[in-house]
Amino acid sequence: MADPAELGRALAARGVPPLAAVEWTDEIPSTSDRLKALARAGAAEWTAVLADRQTGGRGREGRAWASPAGGLYLSVLLRPRFAAVGLLPLAAGVAVAEAVAEWGIAAQLKWPNDVLLDGRKLGGVLAEASSGSGGVDWVVLGIGVNVAVTREALPPDVRDAAASLADASSVRPPVSDVAAAVLAHLRLCYDGLRADPPRIVETWRARAVDWWGELVDVETARGTLRGRMRGVDTDGALLVDLEGEESHRILSGEVRRLRRAVRG
Fold first, then answer.
1. What whole-number percentage of the chain has pLDDT above 90?
2. Per-block average pLDDT, block size 10, for the chain (264 residues)?
3. Residues 6 or more apart from 83 whose CB is under 8 A from it?
4. Which domains does the chain possess?
5. Which residues pair with 21 in a beta bridge?
6. How far apart are CA 220 and CA 197, in angstroms?
7. Distances from the Cα of 49 to the Cα of 39, 138, 176, 250, angstroms
8. Is residue 19 helix, strand or coil?
9. pTM for the model
10. What would you report as the CA-atom Rg of the chain, rounded to the nearest whole angstrom?
């Protein structure tokens, strides 16, 4: 099991303020579920929970997230007091992409929460929030990154779709170093959401998969929409031009490219 003090030293070496509190266990059902319980009990912003393995990790729409040894499984508690809360998943994606770039990894972002390497999934983000009469009370950001996860450790149905930082880099950083890098960049992006939300959106777009203008299917709670991917608005919603209609604004869904658009 990694030592929380090791993470503290890695953050200090970067000049990053210490976390409010850290739990790092060898195995847990879900770091986010544990952190949500701490949030409801009044835990401070920038409390973090990490685990070497998760037995009940999940992604969007309750999908299982394989969490064997060798990955970063991190959940961070935020208590935002600004309007751009909806951009937190995009900001977290930017933080992960910029963190892994320190090891020469050119990751791309797929709306709303995937971090890709050569089209395969390197990591992901899941934001879960609780609101009260005064607005958003807290947000738990769950972040997973395949640092040195072996192909054999993954379920057969996701092996071909997964990427690992160790597979793409000659350097195999400790998970604590990757955690420190993600947290450092997340703090910068979080501050950016306070000061200049559109800049975070533009940064996300610059790192996004180049599907603009291409035909996509977007699976939503109301069914599948097909159209051309136009962009992301200032609230982080996906804009898709449906056939015969103006841009449709999608807040949540799963996007899949169908074919490349013909450009004249």
1. 70
2. 84 95 95 97 98 77 68 96 93 97 95 93 94 91 91 79 84 91 98 94 95 93 91 91 85 84 45
3. 197
4. 4-207 (3.30.930.10), 215-259 (2.30.30.100)
5. 47
6. 25
7. 11, 15, 12, 31
8. coil
9. 0.91
10. 18
Q: What is the pLDDT of residues 111-169, one digit of tens each?
A: 998 999 999 999 999 999 999 888 899 999 999 999 988 777 887 877 888 889 888 87
CA angle 105/15/168 to nearest 5° reads: 10
List the structure tokens of 17.
Answer: 């303020």
Most distant CA atoms of the chain, gap in Å? 58
Angle between the N-to-C axes of helices 175-195 and 197-207, in degrees from 0 to 180, rounded to the nearest 10: 130
- Cis omega before residue 112 (within 30°)? yes
**C-alpha separations of 256 from 14, 59, 181, 220, 224 in Å:** 37, 17, 29, 12, 10
- Sign for the pseudo-dihedral over CA of 191, 126, 80, 251: positive
With H, G, I as helix, E, B as strand and everything else as coil, classify residue 130: strand
Select from 207, 195, 176, 135 the least CA-distant residue to 187: 195
Q: What are phi and psi of 121, to 5 degrees?
A: -80, 115
Q: Which one-letter amino acid corresponds to residue 121?
A: K
Distance (Å, rounded) from C-alpha 192 to C-alpha 6? 27
Pair of tokens at residue 126: 């899941």
**Structure tokens, 141:** 């950001």
Name the DSSP class of 193. H
CA distance 206 to 195: 19
Whole-angstrom distance, CA of residue 86 vs CA of residue 102: 27
CA–CA gap between residue 182 and residue 19 (Å, rounded): 13
